[in-house]
Amino acid sequence: MKLKILRLSSFLVCFSILLISACSRAQGADNYLGVTDSKILLGTSLALTGHFSYLAVDYLEGALSYFNHINDLGGIYNRKVKLISYNDRYEPYKTVVNTQKLIHQDGVFMLFDYFGTPTTVKIIDMIHETKIPALGFFSGAETLRTPFRPMMFNVRSSYYIEAEALIAYFTLQYDFSRIAVVYQDDAFGIQGLKGVQMALIRRNLEPIATAPYLKGGKDMGQAIERISKFQPEVVILISTAGPAIFFMEGMSKKGQFPYYSSFSVIGSNQFSERIRSSKLLPLSVYKKIMMTQVFPNPKKNDLKVAGEYREIYRRYYPKREFNYESFEGFINAKVLIEALKLAGEDLNRKKIVLALESMKNVDIGGFQISYGVLDHNGLDDIYLTQLNSDGRFVEVV
Amino acid sequence: MHRFYIRLQVYLILFLLIFVAINTAAVVTSLKILQKKRLETTDLFFAKSLAARVYRDIIEENIAELSEKIFKEKQVRDDKIEYIMVYDKKGYLIAYTYFTAIPKKLISLETEVASTRHRNQRITRIKEKGLSVYDIGVPVLEGVMPVGSLHIGIKSSYLRNLFLLAIIPSLVVIFIQVFLIVIFRENIARLIISPSYKISNTKRSG
Asked: Does A25 have pLDDT greater than 50?
């Protein structure tokens, strides 16, 4: 009888051990998804066509140029980096569907280089639930940063920091207090508006007027009417290039020429081109048009990473112009490659998270990036730029 | 023996009454907690999401659009919502779903919450002739700045009906149990007594 009980117990113990090890292997298998001996599979969803495509395509190509360069050099531990990109046309639910596909059908190792605020905020819970690492978002939304998300890593600064820099500049440099805000009526606009409002509240101020507009912004009439009534000294434009131009032209028609400033995501090349081609925006207005940037000027000669970007980007995309968007994609890719090197040959999802968290003051060619166990925001730099008389943005601070 | 038998039946009934009272109190309390939780979660969330959809109409002073939105919301939830009212930043009522005059209590309620209206959410019980609601007041925010407030009256009768629907089956079961025990109290008492009676008889004869 005793022998039988002993046998039965040993059988149960062995069975439990096998079951536990099978389960942990299954979890381990998830951990190794998207990594083979020859390739590391990444996935992204961005607006490759439509309203924001002028920014997203450059952003993607910047990253691809650096991956191509690394792959041509032999890859990371003999593994080539492959980035699958799906088009979401800046439609939030398309982003969700694309991300489901990337995670569950394509089995990517991690998500990388996502684009936009209304789109990326929709996949936060999915990243959290599936425990897939995600690095680099073309958005400064606070929702992507607070509360702390263990699998999400931002490279660029937040909108709140951009807003703080702008308000600090206008209130200290010019002693302005009549500040108005025009914003796109979606998650992107609201996040930017909150940043501006909080920066003003810290100085016992509030916007003298606000005006939301619908995405696309073909009819900015209502916003112009609303804001012009208050004769602001500064108008903060949380928008894309098109609506910003319509708005500034409308204000000019009313004989009002306040300072304007927009956030980094507007796309400086497109913005400055459209200003130059506008007949309603005189040269005298140029010096009053500013914008924040979250990366240094990619055309800077004394910045190592900028030179590297120009050389590599020109090699793979010879017909494309240098701009902040492709530079951002390039830097995101560079940060990822550094982390992949640190994670070692036996790559898995846990190791890439640990590798990213271990990056402290890592030099990526002239400026440094840092993460920590409880700090997943890589950079907090802001560069203020102003339109010069040639109609090009140059750094002022 | 007979006295003990009668006493046992009385104790049984007393025990039953206490049991029923405690049970009923527990069910009622837990349902009241659930009702409060419902107001603080589902209904408050609904008020906040509606507030997030009307901020633009308030700042653009688009009262027609605003009214259409709140009437539509009331229409699809008519069994639940008594009223929806929207106030601007200065506390002026700019849109509401009443076809008739607004009950006086609601106007004074708005004055009461004026100091906190733009900052906090608030659930208030309003009970007077012809009006019995839970008033949910939330700020309407544009970014982080308040541009007005929104009030939704959740009908007490709606919550009471939900409450009764949930409580009635439990109460019916409890009362059936009580009824059966009262009917069969003699049998139960006999069932308890007979073994001890047998033991004491055996002891006495032994």
From this structure: no
